[in-house]
Amino acid sequence: MSRRRRIYDCKAKVLFEGPEPGTLVQYFKDDATAFNNQKKGTITGKGVLNNRISEYLMVKLGEIGIPTHFVRRLNMREQLVREVEIIPLEVVIRNVAAGSLAKRLGIAEGTQLPRSIIEYYYKSDELGDPMVSEEHITAFNWAMPQDLDEMLALSLRINDFLTGLLLGVGLRLVDFKLEFGRLYENEEMRIVLADEISPDNCRLWDVKTGEKLDKDRFRRDLGNVEEAYQEVARRLGILPEGGPRDMKGPSTMQ
Ligand code: TMP
Hints:
Elements: E1 6-9, E2 13-17, E3 23-28, E4 31-34, E5 39-42, H1 46-63, E6 70-73, E7 78-82, E8 85-86, E9 89-96, H2 99-105, E10 112-122, E11 131-132, H3 134-139, H4 145-167, E12 171-185, E13 188-194, E14 202-206, H5 216-219, H6 225-235
Antiparallel strand pairs: 1-2, 2-3, 3-7, 4-5, 6-7, 8-12, 9-10, 9-12, 10-11, 12-13, 12-14
Bound molecules: thymidine-5'-phosphate.
Thymidine-5'-phosphate is lined by residues 92, 98-101, 129, 175-177, 201-203.
């Protein structure tokens, strides 16, 4: 058992106190939940793969000037990140109708949207993450109007970049969820991308076959869940050295 102080325990990750002030260690679990914790399970090797996939995508985003909380990967299941004040919103960017949008508006899953659509959800497990508008966000001070503008601009740049990157490896970026945080540095505040980007919070479909290669395989009991995460990592060229057998990784924290 680690003696490091646990700062935050969420469904798929644990945040520990980092080695230096202003840093945290983000530990990726194999645990998976869906439908606000009603469905629970384990996806063997998911933590190792999501750690790599999120590292890869955050580094690439950093290279095009998107500020992120990511510092470096520490080991199979952990990465060092900057400590930020999380803005209590889930920002969902959609390119293709799927999931809750398809259901709520009665649009056939797979319909290309006329343009990218951004939605905001208020992060609250008790309330089941309700969808909110910019009016709610600014009226209740979850974010200032200029913070929202910044999040929107970053989300659209991230969407454009990731859509292209993933298309290059035969994946259609259907939709995804982002979280942002406030980073305080030299009396200044910057909005940075936080959390993770992985098949846990993206919908990724094979361009040719339409096969789902993301957490929907777990949510909808489609089978081959582990294989889907491995396939995304493989396409990005980042499967762990020992291949799928190496995926459990050292369980140093738990
Ligand atoms: P939705 O269609 O269920 O609203 O999901 C939209 C996208 O957001 C999808 O890529 C999955 C992701 N997502 C999360 O990462 N966390 C969540 O709690 C939910 C509901 C969705």
